[in-house]
Amino acid sequence: MSNKISIYRFMSAGCNGCDVEIFECLVPRYKLGELNVEVVSSPEEANVLAITGGINVKGREELKASYEKIQPPKLVVAIGNCALTMEIFDGGYPMVGPPDRIVPVNLYVPGCPPRPQAIVSAIAKALDKTLSMEENYWDAPEGFRGLHEFDGEKCIGCGACAQVCSSKAIDIIDGNEKRLIKVNYGHCSFCAFCQDECPTEAIKLTKKYQMLTDNRNLTNITNEVQLISCSICGRRFMPEPQIEWAIKRVTEKVNVYEKFMDAVRRAMRICPDCRRETENIRDAKKLLLQLSTVARINRK
Ligand code: SF4
Ligand code: SF4
Predict the structure, then answer these.
(1) Looking at residue 54, what DSSP letter applies?
(2) What pLDDT score does 88 carry?
(3) How do residues 239-266 score in pLDDT, each as one tens digit?
(4) Is the CB–ligand 2 distance for residue 123 below 6 Å?
(5) Protein residue closest via CA to atom 2 of ligand 1
(6) What's the pTM?
(7) How far is the CA of 37 from the centre of ligand 1 (A)?
(8) What pLDDT does residue 53 have?
(9) Regions of the chain with pLDDT less than 70
(10) Could you tell me if 242 and 157 are in contact, meaning their C-beta atoms sit under 8 angstroms apart?
(11) Do residues 20 and 112 both lie within one domain?
C-alpha cells in the first residue's frame, strides 16, 4: 500500500467514546505524524475507513457510499465493540448490523472504548510498522479493566458471572460432558461485575488491552468444567467442582455436618427431575431432618 495513510472516520450508532479515543491518538506522544498518518475530512481523500458504532438504517447507504469513495487499498478498520457486535445497540429497531454486514472489514479493534494505544497499534499494523513501546504510557494504569483471564483450577462452572452480566457477554453452554463458560469480549463493557460476583475469584479482568484481530469470531475467552451425571437417570446436569465447592463451604461453616457429607453428596448427585420422585423426596426430607437435629443439639 501507499506510504501515506489517510483516515476517514465514519461514525454511526454509539456513545462516541471511541471517537474521543481516536482524537486522543492524534496527540504528539504517539508520533502518528512521523508514521505519515493523517485524518482527513472526506472519504475521497482517504485510503482507510475507520468505523465506530453499529450501523443504523440511515447510516447504511452512507457507509456504502463512503466505502466506494475511499482510495485503494480500501482498508477498513472497525473500532470499538459497537463496531464489532453493536453491543448494547444490538436489537435496537433502527439497527441493521455491525459494519461488516455492509462492507468488508479488515481489522477489528475490540474495547469499550479501546485505549488510544490499542488504536495506534492497529494503525501501525496496517502500515506494517513496529512501534517502540518503551514509554510508560503503553502500560495500562492500576485498576484498568481489560481482557478477561480464567483460572481453570478455581472455576466451578456455577454461571454466576453470566447471570450478573448485563451486557449478556457470557454464555454458559452445556455439552455432553462439559460446561463451557464463554466470555464474548466483543459484547463486553468491561464493567468487572463478573469478577466481583465470582465466588471463587476464578475470573479476572487483566490490564491487557491489545485485542486487535482480523477475525471477529475469535473475540472470546473460554473455560471448561466437567459435568456430573445424575446417579439415577445418567443425565449430565451440574458441574462436578460446584458440588465439591458447596460441600466444602458447608463443612467449613458448620463442622458438625461433616459426618453427613457422603449422604449430602449422594443427594446432590440426583438431577432436578429425579429429585421429584416420591422416594427421593422422602430421602431428602429425612436427611434435612437429621441435619437440622444435629445443628439444634450443637447450638444448646
Ligand atoms: S468464572 Fe466464577 S462465576 Fe463464572 S462460572 Fe467460573 S466460578 Fe462461576
Ligand atoms: S466485564 Fe464481565 S460482567 Fe461486565 S460486561 Fe464484561 S463480561 Fe459482562
Answers:
(1) B
(2) 85
(3) 999 999 999 998 888 788 888 889 999 9
(4) no
(5) 198
(6) 0.90
(7) 43
(8) 93
(9) 1-3, 300
(10) yes
(11) yes
Question: Does residue 292 share a domain with residue 244?
Answer: yes
Output the domain CATH number for residue 121: 3.40.50.12280
Query: Buried (b) or exposed (e) across 269-282, using 16+ Cβ within 10 A?
Result: bbbeebeeeeeeee
Ligand 2 mean position, distance from CA 249 (Å): 26
Point out the ligand 1 atom lying closest to the alpha carbon of residue 181: 5
The domain of 196 spans 149-227
Among residues 191, 209, 227, the one where a domain terminates is 227
pLDDT value of position 2: 54
Between CA 65 and CA 186 the distance in angstroms is 26
Cβ 13 under 6 angstroms from ligand 1: no
216 and 286 share a domain? no
Only one residue has cell 482510495, namely 71
Contacts of 286 (CB under 8 A, 6+ apart): none
Mutate to test the pocket of ligand 1, among 149, 151, 153, 156 (most ligand atoms within 8 A of CB): 156
Q: What is the position in ligand 1's atom list of the atom closest to the CA of 201?
A: 2
What pLDDT, on the 0 to 100 scale, is given for residue 1? Answer: 47
Same domain, 129 and 20: yes
Whichever domain contains 153, its CATH number is 3.30.70.3270
**How does the average pLDDT of the chain come out, rounded?**
92
165 lines ligand 2 (CB under 6 A): yes
C-alpha cell at 49: 475507513
Residue with the nearest Cα to atom 7 of ligand 1?
A: 155
